[in-house]
User: What shape does this take?
Amino acid sequence: MATCIEWAEERTEECSEWRDEGHNECSAWDDRCCDWWPCSWACKVITWVCVAFVWVSSWVCVAWTVVTTLVCVAWDVVTTVANAILVTLESVLGWVLSAVAFIIELLEAIPILGTLIRWVLNFVTFLIWTIVSLVDAVLGLVGVRPEKLLRVCTVILRDERGAPVATTAYAVDLLQVAVNVFKRDANVRIVPLRPFKYTTGFAGPETVTEDWVSVERGPSDADTLDVPCDAGGAGAEWLLAGSKLQLKMSTNCFYGAWRRVLGYGEPVACFIIRSVPGAFGCALWITDYATVANQTPPTGGGLINRRVLAHEVGHATNLWHLDAASNPTNLMGTPWSSAVPDLTQSRLDWWQVLLVRASKHVSYF
Assistant: This one.
C-alpha cells in the first residue's frame, strides 16, 4: 500500500480519536457544571458550543486529510510515470555524464586542495537544493509528503591481507533497517545506486538483497580501514585518508558521479570499514560518504547496533545527535542503548522528517 494512503488512514484514526476525546471533555464539563438556573442554562450553552466546535473540527480534520492524500497520491502517479522515462534516459546517458564528472572528482581527490574544492562544492549545492526544497518543506509541514528517493552505494572494504572486513549479510541487515525507518517515517525510499532502477510510490519499502552491496577488489590501508570521527575524522578528510575514500567512492560508485557534482539526488556512499575508534560509525555532514564499523564478532554485550547505518545516513541528510536520555527511541539518539529495539522503535520526529526530505541527497527524480 502507498505510504500516502497508510498515513491517511492513521490521520483519519487520529481525527476520530480527537473527536471522541473532545466529546468526553465536553460531557465532563457538563457533568461538573452547576445545576441551578441561570447558571445551568449558561453551562448548557457552553456545552453545545463545545460539542459543535469538536464536531466541526473533526470534520475539518478529515476533509484536510482527504485533500492532502489526494495531492500526495496524484504526485506519486506523476513521479512514477516521470521516473520511468527519466530512469531510462539516465541509465543510458548517466555513464557519459559520470565520465565527465569523474574528471572533476579526480581533482577533488587531491589532498587539502581537492578537499577544499569538494567542501565548497558540497556547501554550494547544499544551499541551492535546500532553497529549491523550500516549497516541498512547506507542503510537508501541512501533511503533503509524496515519496522521494535516496540512493546509496554500499561498499565493503578489504583489509591489508585482502580479506573483506565484514560479511555481505551484515551490510544487508543494516541497510534493511535504514530502508524501513526512512520509508515508514519520512516516505523516503532508499534504493541502490544502479541503472534501470524503477520505483513507484505505490509499493512498500525495498527488500535489500546482496546485490545492493559490493566488495572492493583490492586491499586497503589502515588509514581507510580505521577512520576516526569528529575532529579526528575531519582532519583525516583533509589528508590522505579523505583522498583515498574519495577515490574509492569515485571508482566503486562511478555511476552516480554526475549527481555528486551537481548535488541533485546525490548518492550517499556507505563504506563498511574495520573500525571507527570510539564509535559505531561516522558521517561528516559536508562529505558524500559515511563509514560504518564492522561489529562482528559483536561487542558490547554481544549485541549489534543494527541502526548504525540508518543513523549515519541521517547525519548525511541534515540530522544531528539528540540526547538518548530524553529521546530514547529516536534514530539520532546517542549514546546508543541496546535496550531500544532497532527496527521497531527507531523513529524520526516530524521536524526531522522535513529536514531529511529537504536534503540534496533526497529527490523526486
The chain has a mean pLDDT of 90. The longest strand covers residues 148-158.
